[in-house]
Amino acid sequence: MSHVKKSFGELDVLKDISLNVEEGEVVAIIGPSGSGKSTLLRCATLLETMDEGSLTYCGQNAAVNENGRSRYASKKELHDIKENFGLVFQNFNLFPHYSVLKNITDAPVHVQKRDRDEVTAEAKKLLAKVGLEGRESSYPWQLSGGQQQRVAIARALAMNPKMLFFDEPTSALDPEITAGILKLMRQLASEKMTMVIVTHEISFARNVADRVIFMDGGVIVEEGTPEDVIDNPKSERTRAFLQKIE
Ligand code: ADP
Ligand code: MG
Q1: Exposed, middle or buried by CB within 10 Å (0-12, 13-18, 19+), for 218?
Q2: Cα of 147 to ligand 2 centre, how many Å?
Q3: What is the per-residue pLDDT across 175-203, written as a single tens digit (0 to 9) for each?
Q4: Helix, strand, or coil (residue 13)
Q5: Predicted pLDDT of residue 212
Q6: Alpha helix (H) residue ranges in 132-191
Q7: Low pLDDT (below 70) residues in the chain
Q8: Is 108's C-beta closer than 6 angstroms to any atom of ligand 1?
Q9: Where is the ABC transporter domain (predicted)?
């Protein structure tokens, strides 16, 4: 994304954000509450429209900047562009009235129009991968928060995305449950899944991210390797933030 701006009324939430993510890269976004991290992810994943700036996936324009406004591609083009990425939220956002299996297979079958048997077989493999083998008939309310988040990750993976976005995936979870989810995300990173992760888990960001971005007040204050940003922050704002949360 390039020169992205977004306001809600008088409130300028994103002030000229440019961000490029390479294939296979793991980018961690950290920063105080209200700094615009979720809005950035929502703009990047087309859940929210940008006011100004451009957005490109794999050379395909989702939006271009035209006369200081973002002009979006057609519905059909955006539909195709959405195939590039999956999204995992803080509160799992599973469909409560769908079984685990249906949560995972619904979009591949109905949006991607893939063969149901093939998708079902793949969903069972994905459930094993996330540590929930055999739970396909369960409903979200029968699962713990950590298990629901594992289903959400399996659901995102079932679309065969090129990249995954995570918005504070462990913020609603207990510490010991968090560790399991972080381990799963670390495994995805080792498999070279491209990921953008908004997180407060600083040690996870230090160990897993290729690049760390510190946001504050709608701008990228500082970015670089974990060693640069977390261990040797240049900005006083970054230093103050890290001191507060560690
Ligand atoms: P973060 O994820 O870093 O905590 P957000 O992107 O959620 O920050 O929010 C940034 C600012 O934008 C906050 O002040 C928030 O209240 C405001 N905001 C976010 N979404 C909306 C919205 N839909 N309408 C009005 N204000 C919003
Ligand atoms: Mg947020």
Answers
A1: buried
A2: 22
A3: 999 999 999 999 999 999 999 999 999 99
A4: strand
A5: 98
A6: 145-157, 175-190
A7: none
A8: no
A9: 1-242
Those residues whose beta carbon sits under 5 angstroms from the ion ligand 2 are 37-38
Based on C-alpha coordinates, what's the Rg of the chain?
18
CA distance 233 to 237: 9
The pairing of strands 163-167 and 85-88 is parallel
Residue 6 in tokens: 């977004």
The ranges assigned to domains in the chain are 94-160
Decide: 13 in ligand 1 pocket, CB within 6 A: yes
User: Ligand 1 mean position to 36 CA, how many Å?
Assistant: 6
Question: Residue 96 has what pLDDT?
Answer: 96
**Pairing label, strands 85-88, 52-57:** unpaired
Burial of 141 (0-12, 13-18, 19+ CB in 10 A): exposed
pLDDT of 245 reads: 84
Question: At 134, is the secondary structure helix, strand, or coil?
Answer: coil
Ligand with the closest atom to the CA of 29: 1
Q: Is the CB of 36 under 6 A from ligand 1?
A: yes
For the four alpha carbons of 139, 140, 144 and 150, in that order, the dihedral sign comes to: positive
- Establish whether residue 199 lines the binding site of ligand 1, counting it when its CB lies within 6 angstroms of any ligand atom: no
Cβ of 8 closer than 6 Å to ligand 1, yes or no, is yes
Which uninterrupted H or E stretch holds 196? strand 194-198
